[in-house]
Amino acid sequence: MTGRGKTIVIWVVSGLLALLYLTSGGMKLAGAQPAIESFTRYGYSAWFRLLIGAIEIVGAFLLLVPRTSGYAATALGVVMIGAAYTHLVNAEASRALLPVLLLVVLSVLAYARRPE
To answer: Is 31 left (phi over 0), alpha (psi -120 to 50) or beta?
Structure first.
């Protein structure tokens, strides 16, 4: 892939991930009923839901800054590891697939944005 093509792909992936995490984090911070129910069902407290929501929103914005996108991808990757773990220990292996897929995409993005 050419340098220009690679740059375009990185920006598109970063933008889509930012949109996804902005939406997800916003729902958690706004106290959307599905988010509250999920965190409660898994035994997590309201402050933890707010923390994850804040990490997702800050991470979404930092994904769009080339200098910080690798750090954001790493932080969001840690959140995805936690999400996958939560689903696995609650016998929801099929629901763990999305966090694992996002972890892979975030890892590739972090690698692509590494300083040269």
So the answer is: left
